[in-house]
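ARCHIVE CARD
Drawer: 12
Card no.: 0347
Subject: one protein chain, sequence and derived structure
Cross-reference: see card 0346
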Amino acid sequence: MIEDGSLSRETEALRERLREAEETLDAIRNGEVDAVVVAGEGGVPQVYTLETADQTYRILVEEMREGAVTLSADGTVLYSNRRFAELVGVNTSSIVGGLLSRYVSPNDIARLDVAAAQSGKGEFDLVSVNGLLVPVHFSFARLGGDERSPETFCCVVTDLTDQNRTGEELRSAHERLLLEVEERQRTEELLRHSLKMEAVGQLTGGVAHDFNNLLMAISGGLDMLKRTDDPVRRERIEIGMRQAVDRGAGLTRQLLTFSRRQAIDPEAIDIPRQIAGMRELLERSLRGDIQVVTDFAADLWPVYLDTNEFELVVMNLCINARDAMPNGGTITVSAKNKPSLKAGRFSGDFVQVIIADNGSGMTPEVLAHALEPFYTTKDVGKGSGLGLAQAYGFANSAGGKLDIKSEVGQGTSISLLFPRSDLSPNARTAEIGHAKTELDQGPGNGHVLLVEDDHEVAEFTAEMIRSSGYRVTRVASAQAALGALANGRNIDLVFSDIMMPGGMNGVDLAKEIRTRKYDVPVLLTSGYAAAFQAEAHALGVRILAKPYRMEELSAVLLELMQP
């Protein structure tokens, strides 16, 4: 039977997890989430996405009379519409991934770089594949960028071949053209904003429905615990409540993974362990008639990747494979070492990850366009055409590449090539399961300064720290924590929430502790850890993402307080 004190702690833990989930819902309401995949009724995945906006935007851009390209900061073409491909005489798949400057007259390249950097406009000569010069007008615009996402540009390309005007007529035509382009840009922005608001409304409603179901399971479980003394039944109710909390935590992580604010945080990873960790999510996203088989080399090298981006790529490719097997089939995820590889610009040690299916395969025509952003053969609302393009961009940004092999009726094989990492993967996750046993043997004399403004959360966290074998002192603000350290208290570790009142958050506290040269390790925690990961990493400070279990907290405390 569960004692009243234990039940109270369980209740507070549930409240804390739900409070953290509200942060994610705020992100949704603010329009910071593009798409999420969540478990629906009966385990069938539900997709909440902005695909309708993407579909409309793709059609609009593809039907423009002008050429259109998007570029990275170094001039690499990320997207080309059909009209620009016609101007240079090649297909769009040949354009994407190359530099825009290779299609511009050598005499114009210097002016092109200036125009792009200044979001300017100007006339240039395109060089088509057959060597002909095509006079065009370029109009660049910056799409944005910050410390978390790279800067990108768009360019509208107008063919001037038939505009054989001189003097005032030519200037007047240019002015009208610029007005048309500016008006088109305003119209596109209004359209995207309108569709986005509609989609976000649907997204918020769907996620709210899922969270309300979880709240109902937890609320009903608490009521039932009060009405039964049967230990078997109480244990069954408690397991159900924990499962609801875990689903809520998983939903929160998925929302953050698909959020625009998700920070890029590469690290050395062990691919078999990473795939094993997302096995449950894969099974929920695929149908019951789809089998996932893994085949990894025993001596597989680590690779240096962002784990969230890697998991998103694997998920998207597996979902594509699922959709290509309407009658069921097998998805094989394999990986092997490719030592001393020499293939074009690639030279060195690489790891090859292959995701293959035995589905319907692609025709040569579809395969030729498969990597183009917004290109999709799926019905409207079933896919945005961004999955393969995102995987292609991810592989390139990691210093590797993506290749596709497909044959109608024989299935599709996607090969991802990543450089070998000289760093060793972080093994903390593998050690967590052993941490409780080690702490039960416990140091017993460690002293943790807990910085938490929420009284109920602080009570629950303090009890977890005590149960792990440490003494704990709790303060409610960063300023109070600095005061406790200044008083010369024997503190072995500072454990602080990141989001706190008083003008100083947990990261600021860690910086001040370093500035004052207090010789004490700092551990931070947050339900939105990705937003602060870069700052914390620069300080050498660990972040423990909420919600966490006692075993995870115990493992990190033991590691940080070891001499």
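Annotation on reverse: The chain has four domains: 1-63+163-263, 66-159, 266-419, 433-560. Residues 1-63+163-263 form one domain.
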